[in-house]
């Protein structure tokens, strides 16, 4: 349990969802809808194919910032809701795999997140509620993991004392 991940053995956030199919669909939407902005299109493609395993604070910040930019660019498009659903599912499936320090760096605020990396604060505003919920659940899982670790150490210490 001290491997820096979040109780991932106990959580199956998107059971029966094919992550690769979601990624493929997102890449099609990016190609079709974000092709006018090549910089955003390239960043969005990288964000979609990125794996969350061991993702650190900087990479998670980049991921979340790119998700926010993608959704802002698609806000008035017909595919907005579909892309939001895909991004939320990808985040739900991966948030429990990121490095614990990445989750510690995030502070979820009303409709935004604040990321503190080595004292450098970054605010990403107007995050969708679905994405904020996934981040909040990830943070709660991180705190639960910490508490279980403390309890485990106390039990071990008490057992060794007897």
What does this protein look like?
This protein is mainly α. It has one domain. The chain is built from 6 helices and 3 strands, in the order H-H-H-H-H-E-E-E-H. It has helices at 19-33, 38-49, 57-74, 80-94, 100-104, 129-161, and strands at 106-109, 112-117, 120-124. The protein has a 3-stranded antiparallel β-sheet. Strand 2 (112-117) and strand 3 form a beta hairpin. Helix 1 (19-33) runs antiparallel to helix 2. It starts with 18 loop residues before the first helix and ends with a helix. Mean pLDDT is 87; it is low at 6-10.
Global geometry: elongated
Strand order of the largest sheet: 1-2-3
**Helix coverage percent of residues?**
55-70%
Which blocks of ≥5 consecutive residues have pLDDT under 50? 6-10
**Major sheet characteristics:** 3 strands, antiparallel
Order of helices and strands: HHHHHEEEH
Mean pLDDT: 87
SS-based structural class?
A: mainly alpha
How many distinct domains?
1
What is Rg? Answer: 18 Å
Distance between the first and last residues' Cα:
25 Å
Strand content: 5-15%
Number of helices: 6
The overall strand count is 3
């Amino acid at each position: 349990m001290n491997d820096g991940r979040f109780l991932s053995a106990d959580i199956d956030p998107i059971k029966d969802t094919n992550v690769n199919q979601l990624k493929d669909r997102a890449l099609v939407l990016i190609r079709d809808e974000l092709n006018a902005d090549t910089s955003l299109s390239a960043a969005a493609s990288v964000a979609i194919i990125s794996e969350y395993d061991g993702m650190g604070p900087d990479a998670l910040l980049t991921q979340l910032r790119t998700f926010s930019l993608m959704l802002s660019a698609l806000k008035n498009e017909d595919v907005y809701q579909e892309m939001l659903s895909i991004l939320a599912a990808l985040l739900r499936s991966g948030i429990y795999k990121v490095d614990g320090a990445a989750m510690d760096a995030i502070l979820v605020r009303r409709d935004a997140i604040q990321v503190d990396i080595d004292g450098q604060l970054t605010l990403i505003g107007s995050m969708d509620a679905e994405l904020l919920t996934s981040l909040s659940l990830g943070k709660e899982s991180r705190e639960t993991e910490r508490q279980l670790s403390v309890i485990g150490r106390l039990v071990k210490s008490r057992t060794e004392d007897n």
